[in-house]
Design brief:
With 214 residues, the protein is of the alpha+beta class. The chain contains five helices and nine strands. The chain starts with a helix and ends with a helix. One of its GO terms (molecular function) is protein-macromolecule adaptor activity.
């Protein structure tokens, strides 16, 4: 009798621990979107460049790598699929490619002079950014078609072709560093909405697990 009671208590404890772990939001802990001044930031990494504000390409490239990783992680977790492009999160050297041309990789990292128009491989970098935005658009549309309680019905900035919130994501066609930085900030604000959407789903699932465990 006493042994059976201890076993029941152990089972109940394990169920409670499983429910508690189910409430731990690892993705939200890993990806923290915020802002500093005019910059959007991901895990404290600034994304963009501004006249008079020195942001090393190493920092921008690391931030872009985090964006790629975020999109891939949420897509896998939610079961979403990218329609025409894919991402290879590789830290500061991440890549993007077309699904029908997997060998043709495009850089999600820039380098060279801080001055606009002097970025080595800028055309490939711009194509990579456009592919990144296309993947974000797919995932945001997937989330928007699956509304969740307490979450706005749509992200704050619409994505159309190579622009988000009306600002071009392509460095060479953006109209200046400030507009390019604004595009990147709009993208991060959309991804913040995506994380809120994902968090709402995780919370609902954890509540269901806790009720079952009880």
């Amino acid at each position: 009798e006493e042994e059976a009671t201890r076993e029941r208590q152990l089972v109940q404890f394990c169920r409670r621990e499983l429910a508690r772990l189910g409430r731990v939001d690892v993705v939200s802990d890993v990806f923290r979107i915020s802002s500093t001044g005019s910059f959007g930031t991901l895990n404290s990494l600034r994304l963009g460049r501004l006249p008079g504000v020195s942001v090393d390409w190493a920092e921008i490239n690391a931030a872009l790598g985090q964006v790629a990783l975020l999109l891939v992680a949420v897509a896998r977790e939610s079961g979403a699929r990218f329609s025409s492009h894919a991402l290879l999160p590789m830290g500061s050297y991440s890549k993007a490619y077309k699904l029908d041309e997997p060998r043709a990789l495009y850089e999600l990292h820039g380098s060279g002079s801080p001055h606009l128009g002097r970025i080595f491989g800028s055309s490939r970098f711009d194509k990579g950014l456009t592919m990144l935005l296309a993947c974000a658009s797919d995932l945001l549309a997937f989330a928007g078609a699956r509304p969740r309680a307490g979450v706005a019905p749509a992200p704050p900035h619409p994505i159309e072709a190579d622009a988000v919130g009306g600002f071009c994501i392509r460095l060479q066609a953006s109209g200046g560093e400030e507009r390019w930085t604004r595009a990147l900030r709009c993208l991060l604000e959309d991804l913040s909405w995506l994380l809120t959407w994902r968090r709402a789903g995780a919370a609902a699932a954890a509540t269901g697990t806790a009720l079952h465990a009880a």
